[in-house]
Amino acid sequence: MATPSISVIITSHNEGQELRRTVDSLVANTRSLAEVIVVDDGSTDGSCAVFESDPVRVIRHDVRQGVARSRDDGSRAARGDVLCYLDAHQRVSRRCLDRCATLAMARHAITCPDIRDFGLFNWRIHGANFQLCPEHGFFSARWRQGIQLPGVSSVTALRAPPYLIPRSLYHGVAWSRSLQGWGASEASIVVKSYFMGISILHIGGPLARHRFRNEFPYETTWDGIWRNHALIARICFDDATWFRHWLPRVFAPHLTAEAQSTLESPEVQAEHQDFLRTKVRTDRQFWTDLLRQDPPEGI
User: N or C: which end of the chain has fewer CB within 10 A?
Assistant: First the structure.
């Protein structure tokens, strides 16, 4: 099968030289790179200004919009067969993205490679599995670490880039334009893909380095994180599940008045109704099949 063309979408906010090094790694190691779309999400350090020609295009936000909306803006502008999402502080091994893109098209699935931090003595990560956060109850994931043979395996979650989505699938799993700031961007894709019956496949061998950081170079708030997770639940689950479980048992104590207004806005309600028409799995299956536990009472 011919390698599909790849549009790489990078969101960047004040990443300095890391962004340039990430783009150089992509260009040097990706055979079927159609374009790199850098979404400059309100940077003030001039790090995105160095890109003026192909294969890099820059989409600029004057004010920071957040990861989800930035990735959606990049996706809407992309021309490749497969959309690949990266952070601005990553490096990829030779043909890493080509192999993931070929698998994504062949299996009509979301794909991801091995990930490893920049340090010398860190575990290689082989994808992630879905869970609910033990402390907070919202959407989360745990890394798969340790020794694993090369090959393709099913995983149930995404926790960090890179991951690749065939452009033909993107509309169904697209990030909501109502998501803001940081938090829940991977969870949004995971929950939607589960309900739509779209597989997430990990391919062992190809490697992406990721500079994991202890703190963010931009402001994050718990109000915003709770809001984003609640938005995913409101869009993806039936009304009965939202009003019987997610709202009273998980989110209500943590939502601001503004967040509650957004969740019941006409825009979000329209997204919710549109998504319900695409679901091929039930809310009960979310617990019984994905989490492998009994559903909450009343679901």
Answer: N
Q: Is 162 in contact with 208 (CB distance < 8 Å)?
A: yes
Query: Is the pLDDT confidence value at 120 over 80?
Result: no
Distance (Å, whole) CA 71 – CA 59: 10
Q: Classify residue 111: in a domain, yes or no.
A: no
pLDDT tens per residue across span 277-290: 999 999 999 999 99
The total of structural domains in the chain comes to: 1
Rounded to whole angstroms, the maximal C-alpha distance in the chain is 56
Q: Is the pTM value of this prediction over 0.90?
A: yes
Angle formed at CA 8 by CA 210 and CA 95, multiple of 5 degrees: 70
Degrees, nearest 5: CA angle 233-292-191: 25
Domain annotation covers residue 228? yes
Q: How do residues 188-211 score in pLDDT, each as one tens digit?
A: 999 999 999 999 999 999 999 998
In a domain, 281, yes or no: yes
DSSP characters for 80-129?
SSEEEEEESSEEE-TTHHHHHHHHHHHHTSEEEEEEEESSTTPPPEEEEE
